[in-house]
Design a protein that fits this description.
0% strand
Length: 358
């Protein structure tokens, strides 16, 4: 690597470590967010950059040939792409705008809801920030769903409708977020059932999901293009194994268990909400049978876990049991996701493919 690359790694590492030391600094928070925007918008060497740039440049062909079709899945991306292209913006400029808006949305949620907001941003740098750099269309969709999920922290119909609105907008950037319609369905079906009973019902539903796992790609063929189904449910699945599935399920399950242990006995509405959406997220686990790439659905929930647990980061050497479990635990979860996905080879990506190009 060049000297400049080492300097960039050093500066990014310094920002991450600083976030754990100076937990509530508005100046550092601004630096963290600005640097995140710079890395996301200025990177031209990351995985899939060429593919995304090609898709962007197809705007001219789509418009001139009249072949562009707006539909519910991907409409917002196509509209913003066309507007930017017609204004003469390059893909790098378009990506900068989309990335900046998405990161500011995520940063706004963190700043509003997190006590130790610098810690949360540092955890996001560990994971899933590299994915945010690479997945240009999923980034705005994830930011939208991060806000959308917060509307499930209410039993009112108005908030439920706001969640649906955010879901439709998120689907406009990336079709995969249609997955979160399951959360809405669970909210409607179980709104009179307390969370302790819901977890048993959801466990039964997940069991049914596992037993009918081979039917999932066949059902999704009615929604998504054939090439996407082939890639995610067959090509990736050829490399999958039971160890990978169990490992990623265990990793997510550990995060859920940590939320459960911290929330027990707490009269905390936000904590109850975080626990609820983590219980809903169990529906993701059977998809690891195909590939850990489906962990992307857990990312906005993981960020909310960071927000909830970060308030337990110890303020001094003397720590109580919950500070040790929650504060140290959330840092370990962030580190584990980063190490497993980018360094240990248990994901489908490596340091060389994901981190070095950034």
């Amino acid at each position: 690597m060049s000297n400049i690359a080492y300097q960039l790694y050093f500066f990014t590492t310094l920002i991450i470590i600083s976030g754990f030391i100076f937990k509530r600094s508005n100046v550092l928070f601004c630096v963290q967010i600005i640097w995140m925007i710079i890395l996301c918008s200025g990177n031209t060497n990351s995985l899939d950059f060429d593919i995304n740039e090609t898709l962007y440049n197809l705007a001219y062909y789509d418009e001139s040939s009249g072949t562009i079709e707006y539909n519910l899945l991907g409409y917002a991306y196509y509209i913003t792409r066309m507007l930017a292209y017609n204004e003469g913006l390059s893909f790098i400029q378009y990506n900068m705008i989309i990335s900046m808006v998405a990161i500011l949305m995520i940063g706004g949620v963190v700043r509003k809801y997190a006590k130790n907001y610098n810690v949360v941003i540092s955890l996001i740098y560990l994971y899933p920030f590299p994915e945010m750099v690479i997945q240009k269309r999923f980034l705005p969709a994830m930011a939208i769903m991060l806000i959308g999920l917060l509307y499930l922290n209410s039993e009112t119909l108005k908030k439920k409708l706001k969640f649906v609105a955010m879901l439709l907008l998120g689907m406009g950037f990336h079709s995969s977020v249609i997955f979160y319609s399951i959360f809405f369905a669970l909210e409607i079906l179980f709104y009179k059932i307390n969370i302790n009973k819901r977890k048993y019902i959801i466990s039964i539903l997940v069991g049914i999901e596992v037993l009918s796992i081979n039917l999932i790609p066949l059902i999704l063929l009615n929604i998504f293009p054939d090439d996407k189904i082939q890639l995610y449910f067959y090509t990736f699945a050829d490399k999958a194994n039971i160890f990978t599935c169990l490992f990623w399920s265990l990793l997510q399950g550990t995060s859920i268990y940590l939320i459960h242990k911290i929330n027990v006995g707490n009269n905390n509405k936000f904590g109850d909400f975080i626990y609820k959406i983590n219980i809903y997220s169990i529906c993701i686990m059977p998809l690891y049978i195909f590939d850990p790439v489906f962990s992307r659905f857990y990312r906005p929930i993981l960020i909310l876990n960071y927000i909830y647990l970060s308030y337990l980061i110890p303020e001094n050497i003397v720590m109580n049991k919950k500070e040790i479990l929650g504060g140290i635990g959330v840092i370990m979860i962030g580190l584990l996701y980063s190490i497993v996905w980018y360094y240990a080879g248990i994901g489908n990506m490596t340091f060389e493919r994901m981190i070095m190009p950034i």
